[in-house]
């Protein structure tokens, strides 16, 4: 014991600096260095948040400058031309209008079941008409200006003996869109219509025989996301 005390008295001036140095190293490793890293990490996160807030503020300002009435009208035009449901009566009425406009006589209309897919949804309307070749040609041309999207699948025609008329069966594919919900990220840029798309909407609007293209019920069937995306 006396020997240990003697060594302590002899080396105490060396032990205290060593112990203090070791304690400082331990504190540096366990406390100060982690705090330094935490500071830089926090600073980086704050920078990211500030950048994102800047993007969101710019996006909010850009959204505020959009013409809401025009967007609503464009949306109604799109849902009228390409509705989210089959709207078979509307399609049949549009076909009947084009048949009458071309001078053909509509003999029969048949409906086939619809087909849905991720890329395209449609159903088939097959019509039987009687008229001249010129009237059938006029019908096909007028069909391009119809308020619905029609695709002629084929034409089967035969001449009526002793008359300058033909009987034709025309299966027509009627397109409609799937009502799907799309997730839009807050950081995603505001999508705008191109000049070509604007011109197309203007042309489509002229096809619609009434002022408001789609009813409020049609629009209510489509989910447009949260009323407030920041919730």
Indicate the percent of residues in helices. Answer: 40-55%
Largest sheet: 5 strands, antiparallel
Q: What fraction of the residues are assigned to beta strands by DSSP?
A: 15-25%
Secondary-structure element pattern, one letter each: HHHEEHEEEHH
CATH superfamily of the largest domain: Ribosomal protein S6/Translation elongation factor EF1B
CATH class of the largest domain: Alpha Beta
Report low-confidence residues grouped into runs of 5 or more: 211-231
Class per helix and strand makeup:
alpha+beta
**How many domain regions?**
2
Number of helices: 6
**According to CATH, what is the topology of the largest domain?**
Alpha-Beta Plaits
For the termini, the CA-CA separation is: 73 Å
Q: Mean of the pLDDT scores?
A: 77
Q: Number of DSSP strands?
A: 5
CATH architecture term of the largest domain: 2-Layer Sandwich
Overall geometry:
rod-shaped
Radius of gyration: 37 Å
